[in-house]
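Sequence only, no structure available. Ideas?
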Amino acid sequence: MSPLNLVVDQLVGPAVADQAAAAADPVILEGLADFLEILQFLIREPSVVGSEDSFFRVLRRELDEVGAEVSYYHGVLVAQGRRPHDLMLSAHIDRHGLLCTGPNEFQYAAFIAGNQGELTGDSVSEQMLHTIENRFQGQRVQAHLPYTGTYIGQGIITNSYICPERKNLIFEVDGLDYLQPGTPVAFLDRLQFNDGYISAQLDNVISAAIIIFLFRCGFEGTALFTAQEESGRSWRYALSWFQRQRLGTDRLIALDTSPYHSREAADQQLVTLRRKDASADFAPGITQELGDRCTQLGIAYSYKDDYIAAQNLTRPKPYSLGRTEMGRLTAATDGVVTGTTLQIPTTEYHTATETASLASVAAVIRLLQTYID
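Reply:
I predicted one. Tokens follow.
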């Protein structure tokens, strides 16, 4: 038995039993060890927001190997099977990290000055900046050449704070004072297992791994992998592809993680859906379809917009619904390109210890496998 199969046998069972009895069906867990191997591999590859080129090449190699038709455009990699219009999936592939912006100066890559024109102040990432500013002390980081992804050294974050003038998170890093401006610095990331849960910077490499696994299982639709979602640009790259192809759709499913304030709150559901975000209402047909399939499979699910509305009843300052890639696409095209989101509930969002239950991962995979003949 492989180490990952052993992990699945030892860890998934308790987590599944705690969350939803239906998820204990062994069919749901079929191939989960293979999926975790994909995820482990991808997590080690850097993909700092704005410097995703090397990760795109890794994805292309994996998708070429399973026979998908792969096309690479600026900001978006597209993989298609033999029935590309049956169902479309999307996943942003950038991850948070640092960017060297001057002599021994490091900023949160998503919110550097060149990106702030795309940010509206009400995204989840922006609203959580003050929450996460003190979480990085002692975090190991690794620098890479921007285009090739070639490893060039490691350092340790010794301090982080928000600069009110630059409106960004500033990092003090020991060991990387020789870097040139424009060098991306990724968190040193490894997949960790603990009592039915996995941890790493899961947003949103876990969705890329799910899509690759689905193609290996026979998925024949279309998948879009987009860059720079954390800086508010990914929807533009996706939109340019649809415009280039002169296509519209109401069956686009954006895969992602969804943050919850506690493990108890995250474990109330295996799957998180949405009817809308701050930009637009999502396509009701595909949203209801996912909910119906969850019900048929016995998968516990909830709607994030309902959760946020309930939380806001007791908060002096309400949470935003957030501006997602799906909402921005829908609003920009008046619904010509639209769909819905499918998310994995997590805690410790936007850190290197973002945590999801293996039961939730298995449930999302099982749900998406219903679209494979």
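The mean pLDDT is 90.
Hope that gets you unstuck.
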